Amino acid sequence: MRYLRQAWLSAGVVVLPWLRPAPEQTISIHLFHFEPKAIEVPVGTLVVWDNGDDIEHTVTSGRDEQADGRFGGKLAGKGTRFTMRFEEPGDYSYFCDRHHFMRGEIRVNPSGKAGN
Amino acid sequence: MRFSLLPTVLLVGGLTLAAPQAQAQMSGDHAMPAATMSTGDLRVALNNLLAEHAQLGLTATAAALAGRSAEFKAAAGALDANSVQLSQAIGTVYGDGAGQAFLALWRKHIGFIVDYATGVAKKDQKMQDKAVNDLLGYTKDFGAFLNSANPNLPTEVVADLVKGHVVGFKAAIDAQAKGDWATAYAKTREAVAHMQMIADPLAMAIAKQFPDKYAARGN
Lengths: 116, 219
Known about the structure:
The complex is a heterodimer of chains A (116) and B (219). In chain A, the strands form two sheets. A five-stranded mixed sheet of chain A has the order 3-9-8-5-6, with no helix packed on it. A four-stranded mixed sheet of chain A has the order 2-1-4-7, with no helix packed on it. Chain A is 16% helix and 50% strand. Chain A is an alpha+beta fold and 116 residues long. The two termini of chain B are 22 Å apart. The model of chain B is unreliable at 1-34 (pLDDT under 50). Chain B has a two-stranded parallel ribbon with strand order 1-2. In chain B, helix 4 (96-121) packs parallel to helix 6 (155-178) and helix 6 packs antiparallel against helix 7.
């Protein structure tokens, strides 16, 4: 019985992470800024940018108005979205290429640890 | 009055204007707002700030075009202080993030105006054309910003009002550059008066959006 229980628990440890839904984090674009401006997420997180402004914005990876080509997309107007799954740990900076004062930061943690 | 009040009526139809009297309501209970401002006070505050923007902006361009660099520097500093104050007013209503974004957006159009004045001073038509195009593009951004803040302010209507602001500034700057001071000051007065066309709808739309904060009092 004890072995059976251990086997069951072991199987659970292996299986449960598979069953766990992939983490998702939404960043809203409203009034020409990214909210939240900085996020910390576990590796594998799908980040969704949701444009609430009636104008085109972009999500362009890079800093100081220099795109670094890691990721990027256009959000043509209100209600449009851009998604990106972060599979590699690290720090990612991005900005809007139409409004350079709009900036954001994403920290992707290797251990599956989420921040605030 | 030179400018039509139609956009104001379109934007905030049905809203009763309040008497411009300052009233702060004290509250000992955190469940109640600590203070409210009358719609009239809000209109006066925004009209003052935006009229000051036009006045200081054209003072700065006149000084720049005449080569009075110390005066230009002082005027530009005062203009930026006005911009910061405006952004703080926006931040008070819509949050710090919105206030900071507003400041960046607002400074952008001032930069384009400076580009235009520089193009005029240098007689560089290409630079002038680019600045005008940038300013026209900016009107859409500004319209979208205010529409996002307040759905009572349609993007295109705001963009058209800001376009009027840009055209008025351009006319005043052109006259300043020619040394046609009668026209320059007539256009300056028009530019200052035009700010009411932006300040009034903005104030009334905010009051409509937050009736608990900006109470209509009197008639």
